[in-house]
Structures are given as structure tokens and as C-alpha cells.
Write a structure and sequence with these properties.
Chain B: InterPro entries: ABC_transp_permease, BCAA_transport_permease, LivM-like. The complex is a heterodimer of chains A (about 260) and B (about 675). Chain A has about 260 residues and is an alpha/beta fold. In chain A, about 35% of the residues lie in helices and about 20% in strands. In chain A, strand 1 and strand 2 form a beta hairpin. Classes of the chains: A alpha/beta (about 260), B mainly alpha (about 675). The interface between A and B is medium-sized, with 40 and 30 residues.
Chain lengths: ~260, ~675
């Protein structure tokens, strides 16, 4: 099936962090994701590309738990998480951002980040959780400050999230993912709608703050994908067309025919 | 088992036809409700009042000698259609793009206005059914005698429904309406001015309701409360059939009519319970209803709840100062009795405000902070009242323990109701909470009948029988509730100094304590998560929060506080609880107070309660009987112009003053787009 160079099958040696096994999702007659077997290695930067309707976002929804598979399974760090609810998968270490900016608009920037950090620090007594003032948790405050600084929004914590400029809101969104401290970070078109300058800054931010984590990225900007990825998976009509390092994928004939229209790269 | 009376085929047919007759009225009412919801996401609580208006117009036309039944059947619906169109233009139009909650609130305000307007014009005396002329005779078919009118209603209902269906299926109007109910924006982008159609749709729905009203008036007397009595069954019909589905409205209407008819005939003590159970069952198994589309997404998605939080007038420090000052004023208020005001002001009005303030505070936790719009919050208030009284009657007359019992029972039922309701979201959640509240309200009323049916069976089996838990209409009362465990001074009887009573301070302390506990919860991590759920439940769950669990917990806390409010109210009511404690109008009133004050602030709803009750008192003491109508008008204006409530007025004024050159003010949501 995967016809591109598969020599780096298990990235970085050991077991893959994420595996999908025969993953399939149907909507009525439509097969949005069709029998996918994907392996993502520890610390890998993997991009998912493909034309509109290739099944990229559906794949994300299946991995993060927004959708349940029709068939097949999602295995994360050796555990089958296919039937877990979204918050349980977050607890296992899967974090995601959304295609359409999804931050808590009515809350302040700081409150947004703190909520994400608070979700990650779970070993609190129910009493503390319900009755202790949220400002009084030292570890929570430190972590919030740290994330705010890393996404360049320190000093702007008091602003209401809905009033942020578009680019800042996308940064905040990445901050939310970062604050939950995930093993696997899933980013759904983090630079959609951005100017070239903003895109560059955002990719730098992603490289900076998520550098040592495993990243799964959906992105339309081919050049960006080619530069950033360790490996690329190409989807077409729900099926895996090819997986491999950027150069190999770019040279793959099937990919060129089906997706790139031949000779774009 | 219960013994069923012997049933003949003739009787069965008779009941079946009765059921269809009533069902047709429901069909006419529900079809309009459903289309209006489908196209505009508007839940029109005033739809029952449109039906009542149709009936009253018909009465007016026939009694004034302008025309007979047939003229009324044509003219009254047209008149109501015009009123419906005007209603959409003037009041509902400004709210498109906001959360559907605001339509519920607005149309609830309109209900108050309609009810009082009808009373003002036609008085409170019921009118006899319309003279239907030749239709009032009976007809015998296959040896089975029945009034001609019943057949007429069924045939006419079928013709009107078929006509409406043809309009929806075969005309350009219908095409736009159906397309609009699938994707409003798409229709707009096709260059069709769908807003113009909205007025027509609303008028069309009003027309159908009024036809139902005229038909109704030919069968039963026309009196106040008519609109209120049909709206809840109509909602059940719409939810059963599937929100926005015309076919569903027809099938649901006939089903509810027939089921009601048979239940009333065969198992009268279950009347009023069965339909609610039916509705709850359907919502749990198939939330989209019998004919609803499973892809129907939560219509709340585009809209926004306008909380007053973030209006930014009160810093924490200032809030504490003002709050502390307020409590201090309330604490010394009784000293003014006989000097500045009489004891009624403190011992009745202020106590009322405190108790309602607590009730509104409890609602704010789920509605303002978590985004769960409970239309049945009166359930917990009523249960708290009943449980408090029952504890005092059957176990110990101690006020403290009885109140704790009220809180616990309300919390327990809130857990159960929350467990079942929180699986569905948005409008469905609102509807299911309403259904649960109505179920318990019917249960409170029907309890004596139920006992009469079940107790002999239990007795013969040697099982303990059910004690008189509610006493139906009469309510149940504890003779004396005391401060001690079994004896001691009676609650309400301990005078500290003249007219200054101990209970005033007990209530003040409990209400202030409840506020402080709620404030603590909201300021703790728990409260942050609730607000995150309100802002975006999906995002919250992808941060790792079990949002269902958080929502349930908030619901339980809220139910417990509402239970305390109900318990306190019962103790004020000479230790009596009655079905009036479970009246769905109270749910509406508490929502009104919460919004009036400014939800999502905790103190706002309490201010709203004070405003609402003070205005009511002011109007009543000035001899204005139409106080509800006036309140309705004030409320409608608030929903349209000051949706963030009284507490947002200072910042609103400030914005107006600064806005000459400024960009859009901070935190103002885009209300135009949806």
C-alpha cells in the first residue's frame, strides 16, 4: 500500500507512539477514512496532506475521540484508545488544536491558559478543586506564566480572548495545547488564514515550543510541510496513498498524479 | 393488578374520535411552532396565546353579531396572522443570531403581556362555546352517535394540515422555507431575502394556531389560562415529532390527543403523567424525535449567551465592599420597622426578595455559568418545599433538619434528572427539564388518586401503603415547625424586639451563606471549568475535562440551593407546600429575574429578583391589576436592549458616552452574524 520509501519505518528506534490499525469511518455510503494503517514514531514530526475531502480532519477526529471508528482501532503508546472519550484520550497524552480557532472567547487570556494547565494537573482533592481559590495554586500559576511567556502573550493575560487579533488567537490556541503537556500534539491547519509573515512566526513557535514532542500536522501549504516534516503521509479519498520522507513523497509518481497534478514540485 | 372496566367497541371508537379531535387542535398548534423553530430557531412560548387570541376573536365576532362561526373561522385567524407578523417584526427580529434562550425569554415576556391584555379586554369570566350552527347536531354512522362537530374538526384539521403541507412542498414560499430550515446562510447567499420570509412564516404559524383556537372555541368554553394550558402539550407534540418536522407535528399531535383521551378514560389517575413520561422516554432514546433529522445540530452553536460577566464595572474589591454594605443594611433593616416603613416591607417583601434571590442564584450557577438553560428549575424549588414540609410532618418538626432534608431531596432528584437530561444538549435539554418539572407537578396533583388506586393493592399484599405525600390541590402542611429538635420555640414566633423576628435573620444568614458558598465554587478551579463549558464545551473536553460530569455536579449544587429556597419559602408559607410550588410559570419568573439582573455574576440575579419583586409590589400597591403585563413589557425591552441585565447598565452608559469616536466596545459580541 505505502509505496514510498519506508526505510525509516519506526522513527527513532523503539515502538511507535501512535498506530492506527485498519481504521475506517463511514458516513452512510461515504467512506471518509478507509482502512488506514499509520504508524507515528516517538518525537516524529509527521504531516498529513491530501486534497479536500481526503479524510484528514476525519482522521484527526478519530484519533482525538471526536468520532468513533466504524472499524479498526487507534493505539496510543501500546493501549487501544478507540473507545475512550475525548477527555480520557487527553489524559493519555493526546492534545489537539482545531481548524477553526477554538479558544474560550469570553474568558481572559490567562484564564484560558490556566484552564488548560489545570486540566493537566489532576492530582488534587475534590475539596480543593471546588473550594480553594484558583489564584492560590502555586504550581498552576507557574505553569500558566511559563506557557504565556513561551507563546509570547506574557503581559497580556488580562485581555479577553475574543478581542485578540487573529494571529494572537492562533498562538493562544497552540498555548492551550502546550499547557496540557501532551505526548502527541495534533495541529489542524494552525496557519490557515495567516499572512506569510504570521505563518513563518507560527511555524517558528511550533518548532520552538513543541520541538521535542511528537507532532501530527494537517497543512495545505506544501512548501511549509516539505520543510518542517520528518515524514509525510498523503491521503486521497480516505486511503493512504504514500508515506515517507518529504523528498521521497515528492518524487512518488502516484502522489504526483493523484494529488500534485504532476510537476508541481 | 388494577381492574379495567369493561370496554365496548363503541366506547373505544368514541374515545378515539375524541382523541383525534383534540389531537387536531394540537396538530394545528404544533405545526406552526415546529415550522417557526425549524426556520428561525425560535421557540415561541407565546404560541398558546396566539391560539387563545384566535378563540377570543371568534367569540368577539360572533357575540358582536358581525358574523357566524364560519365568518369567525376565516376572519379571526387572519387577524391573528397580522398580529403574529407584527410580533416577529417588532420583537423577535432584533434577536436573530443570539442564543435561542433569548427567544424563549422574549416570548415568555410576550405571554405575560398577552395574558393581561386578554384579561383587560375580555375580563376573567369564561365565555360559552361558540354556536356552531348546523354542526352542533349529532350524526349517527353505523349505529354510532356522535356530534357532527367532532367529525368536522377532524376533517377540517386534516384539510388545513394537508393545505399547509402542500404550501410547504409545492410553492416557492415553501421551498425557501424548507431550504432555510436546512441552511439559512446558504439561502441568503443565493440572493434570497430570507428575513422577509421570516415574517411570513411567523404569520403563517400564527394563522394555524388561531384556526386551532377557533376550532377549540366551538367545543369548549373560552377563558383565561387557555393559552397556558395548551402550550405545554404542544411542546410535547413538537419534541415527540421532532423539532422542525411538519410530519412529526401531525403524527405527534394525533398521538398525544389519542393517548390523552384513552388515559383519561381508562386510567384517569395517570392523566397528565403519561404524556410527560412519553416525552422523556422519546428524548432519551431518540432525542431528535420520531421524525426529526438525526443530523440536526444544536441550534445554539451560532448564538451567544450574553452574560454580564466581563462587563467590567465591579472589581472584586468593589463588589465585596458593596456586597458587605448591602448585607449590613439588610441586617439593620428591621430596626426601621415602625419608623421608616411598616413590618410588611421587611418581614414580607425583603424576605421574599431574599428567597427568590437564592432561587435565582441557584439558576445562575447552571444557566449563567455553565450554559445549561433549565426550563424546569421550579422542580427543585418545589421538591425542596415538599420535602421540608414532609420531614416536619412525618419525622421531626425541627426547622434545621427539615431544611437539610429539603436540600438533600432536591439534590438527589437533581442528580437523577441531571443524569438523564445532560445527555442531550441545547434546546432538547431545556425541553426535557421542562418535562420533568411538569411530570412532578402532575404527580403532586394526582397523588390522592394514585394512592386510592395503589394503596388497596399494597395493603392486600401486606406492604406499607403510601402516606398522603401531597394531598393534591390542597397541599400539605406541618402544624408547627420549631427551632428545636422536637420542641422549642416555633419558627416565625420568636420575636427579638417588637416586629423584629428571628426568622428574618435566619433567612438572611442562609441566603448570604449560600451566596458565599457559590462564590467560592465559582472562584475555584471547578467554577473555571463550568465557564469553559459555557464558552465551548468541545474545547473543554479536548483540554481533558469530563464535561458531562462537571455539568452534572453543577446541576446538583444548583438543585440543592433551589431546594433550600423552596424549603425556606414553605416555612414562610405557614409550613405548607402545595402544587403552586411546582407551577412552571415560576420557572419562567426565575429565569426572568436571572436575566433581568445579569446572569453569570451570581449577585446580578439577586438584584434581578429585587427589581422584579419591587416592581410587582409597586404596581400592585398602586392598584394596577395588570402588573404582569407591565412586567412583561419591561422584560421584553430588557431582552432586546439590555440583554446583560441591570448590572450592565453602568458600563452600557459609560460605553454610550465614550463611543462617539471609539471602535466597538470591548467584549461586545458580534450579534449580527450567525
Amino acid at each position: 500500500m505505502a509505496t514510498a520509501d519506508d526505510t525509516t519505518a519506526t522513527f527513532g528506534g523503539g515502538e511507535p507512539v501512535l498506530e492506527t490499525k485498519g481504521l475506517t469511518r463511514r458516513f452512510g455510503e461515504l467512506v471518509a477514512v478507509d482502512d488506514l494503517d499509520i504508524e507515528v514514531g516517538q518525537g516524529e514530526f509527521r504531516s498529513i496532506i491530501g486534497p479536500n475531502g481526503a479524510g484528514k480532519t476525519t482522521l484527526f477526529n478519530l484519533i482525538s475521540g471526536a468520532l468513533l471508528p466504524s472499524e479498526g482501532s487507534v493505539v496510543f503508546e501500546g493501549e487501544d484508545v478507540s473507545q475512550l472519550r475525548p477527555h480520557q484520550r487527553v489524559h493519555r497524552g493526546i492534545g489537539r488544536s482545531f481548524q477553526i480557532t477554538n479558544v474560550f472567547g469570553g474568558l481572559t487570556v490567562r484564564e484560558n491558559v490556566r484552564l488548560a494547565a489545570q486540566a493537566a494537573i489532576r492530582e488534587r482533592s475534590p475539596f480543593e478543586n471546588a473550594f480553594r481559590h484558583k489564584d492560590s495554586f502555586g504550581d498552576l500559576n507557574d505553569r500558566t506564566d511559563d506557557v504565556l511567556a513561551r507563546i509570547g502573550l506574557d503581559g497580556r493575560g488580562h485581555e479577553q480572548a475574543s478581542t485578540l487579533a487573529y494571529g494572537d488567537r492562533r498562538r493562544l490556541e497552540i498555548g492551550l495545547v502546550l499547557a496540557t503537556d501532551p505526548q502527541l500534539v495534533m495541529l489542524d491547519e494552525p496557519t490557515a488564514g495567516m499572512s506569510a509573515e504570521e505563518t513563518r512566526a507560527t511555524m517558528e513557535l511550533i518548532g520552538d515550543v513543541l520541538g521535542d514532542r511528537t507532532v501530527l500536522l494537517i497543512e495545505h501549504d506544501i512548501e511549509l510541510v516539505m520543510n518542517a516534516s520528518d515524514r509525510i503521509t498523503v491521503l486521497n479519498r480516505g486511503e493512504e496513498l504514500a508515506t515517507g520522507p518529504p523528498a521521497a513523497v515528492a518524487e512518488n509518481e502516484q502522489v504526483q498524479q493523484a494529488y500534485l497534478g504532476g510537476g508541481v514540485l | 393488578m388494577l381492574e379495567l372496566p369493561l370496554v365496548t367497541a363503541g366506547e373505544t371508537l368514541d374515545q378515539f374520535i375524541n382523541g383525534l379531535t383534540v389531537g387536531m387542535v394540537y396538530v394545528l398548534l404544533a405545526a406552526g411552532l415546529s415550522i417557526i423553530f425549524g426556520v428561525m430557531d425560535v421557540i415561541n412560548f407565546a404560541h398558546g396565546e396566539l391560539l387563545a387570541l384566535g378563540a377570543y376573536f371568534a367569540v368577539a365576532i360572533t357575540t358582536a353579531g358581525i358574523g357566524n362561526f364560519w365568518v369567525a373561522l376565516l376572519v379571526a385567524p387572519l387577524a391573528v396572522a397580522i398580529i403574529g407578523g407584527a410580533m416577529e417584526r417588532l420583537t423577535i427580529r432584533p434577536l436573530y443570531g443570539r442564543d435561542p434562550l433569548y427567544h424563549i425569554l422574549l416570548t415568555f415576556g410576550l405571554v405575560l403581556i398577552f395574558v393581561d391584555a386578554i384579561e383587560l379586554i375580555w375580563g376573567t369570566q369564561p365565555f360559552r362555546p361558540l354556536d356552531t350552527g348546523v354542526l352542533s347536531g349529532t350524526i349517527t354512522i353505523l349505529g354510532f352517535q356522535k356530534t357532527l362537530y367532532s367529525y368536522f374538526v377532524i376533517v377540517m384539521g386534516a384539510v388545513v394540515a394537508a393545505g399547509a403541507w402542500l404550501v410547504l412542498e409545492r410553492t416557492r414560499f415553501g421551498l425557501v422555507v424548507r431550504a432555510g430550515s436546512m441552511d439559512r446562510d446558504m439561502v441568503r447567499h443565493l440572493g434570497i431575502d430570507i428575513d422577509r420570509y421570516y415574517t411570513l412564516v411567523f404569520a403563517f404559524g400564527a394563522f394555524l394556531a388561531a384556526v386551532g383556537g377557533v376550532v377549540f372555541a366551538g367545543r369548549q368554553s373560552v377563558g383565561p389560562g387557555m393559552g397556558g394550558s395548551v402550550i405545554i402539550p404542544a411542546f410535547i407534540v413538537v419534541v415527540l415529532g421532532g423539532l422542525g418536522s411538519f410530519r412529526g407535528a401531525v403524527a405527534g399531535g394525533l398521538l398525544v390527543g389519542v393517548v390523552q383521551s384513552f388515559v383519561r378514560w381508562q386510567v384517569p389517575f395517570l392523566e397528565g403523567l403519561v404524556v410527560f413520561l412519553l416525552m422523556i422516554g422519546v428524548l432519551l432514546i431518540r432525542p431528535q424525535g420520531l421524525f426529526g433529522s438525526p443530523e440536526w445540530h444544536d441550534p445554539g452553536e451560532g448564538g451567544e449567551l450574553l452574560t454580564a460577566a466581563g462587563s467590567g464595572v465591579l472589581s472584586t474589591r468593589r463588589r465585596r465592599l458593596l456586597g458587605g454594605g448591602m448585607v449590613a443594611v439588610l441586617a439593620i433593616a428591621p430596626l426601621g420597622i415602625g419608623v421608616l416603613y411598616n413590618s410588611y416591607v421587611v418581614n414580607t417583601i425583603v424576605v421574599d426578595i431574599l428567597i427568590w434571590g437564592l432561587f435565582a442564584l441557584s439558576l445562575d450557577l447552571v444557566m449563567g455559568y455553565t450554559g445549561l438553560v433549565s426550563l424546569g428549575h421550579v422542580l427543585f424549588y418545589g421538591l425542596g418545599a415538599y420535602a421540608t414540609v414532609l420531614f416536619a410532618v412525618y419525622l421531626l418538626p425541627s426547622i434545621w433538619l427539615a431544611l437539610v432534608a429539603g436540600i438533600l431531596v432536591a439534590a438527589l432528584i437533581a442528580w437523577v434528572v441531571g443524569y438523564l437530561s445532560i445527555r442531550v444538549s441545547g434546546v432538547y435539554f431545556s425541553m426535557i427539564t421542562l418535562a420533568f418539572a411538569e411530570l412532578f407537578a402532575s404527580l403532586a396533583l394526582k397523588m390522592p388518586g394514585l394512592r386510592a388506586q395503589i394503596n388497596p393493592t399494597l395493603d392486600s399484599l401486606g406492604l406499607p401503603t403510601i402516606p398522603p405525600l401531597t394531598n393534591g390541590d390542597n397541599g400539605i402542611g406541618a402544624d408547627a415547625i420549631t427551632y428545636g429538635l422536637t420542641g422549642g420555640p416555633e419558627f416565625g414566633d420568636v420575636s427579638l424586639l417588637g416586629e423584629i423576628h428571628l426568622y428574618y435573620y435566619v433567612i438572611l444568614a442562609l441566603v448570604v451563606g449560600s451566596y458565599l458558598v457559590s462564590r467560592r465554587l465559582i472562584d475555584a478551579p471547578f467554577g473555571s471549568v463550568l465557564q469553559a463549558i459555557r464558552e465551548s464545551e468541545q474545547r473543554a473536553s479536548f483540554l481533558g475535562y469530563d464535561t458531562t460530569m462537571y455539568k452534572r455536579r453543577a446541576f446538583v449544587v444548583s438543585g440543592a440551593l433551589a431546594g433550600l429556597a423552596g424549603g425556606l419559602r414553605a416555612t414562610q408559607n405557614l409550613g405548607r407546600a402545595s402544587p403552586g410550588f411546582l407551577d412552571w410559570l415560576l420557572s419562567g419568573e426565575v429565569i426572568v429575574m436571572t436575566l433581568l439582573g445579569g446572569m453569570g455574576t451570581l449577585y446580578g440575579p439577586m438584584i434581578g429578583a429585587a427589581g422584579y419583586l419591587s416592581l410587582e409590589e409597586l404596581l400592585l400597591s398602586n392598584g394596577i391589576d395588570q402588573w404582569q403585563g407591565v412586567l412583561g413589557i419591561v422584560f421584553v425591552l430588557f431582552v432586546i436592549f439590555v440583554p446583560r441585565g441591570i448590572v450592565s447598565i453602568p458600563s452600557l452608559v459609560k460605553q454610550r458616552m465614550d463611543s462617539s469616536s471609539e471602535a466597538p466596545p470591548e467584549g461586545e459580541p458580534a450579534e449580527v452574524s450567525d
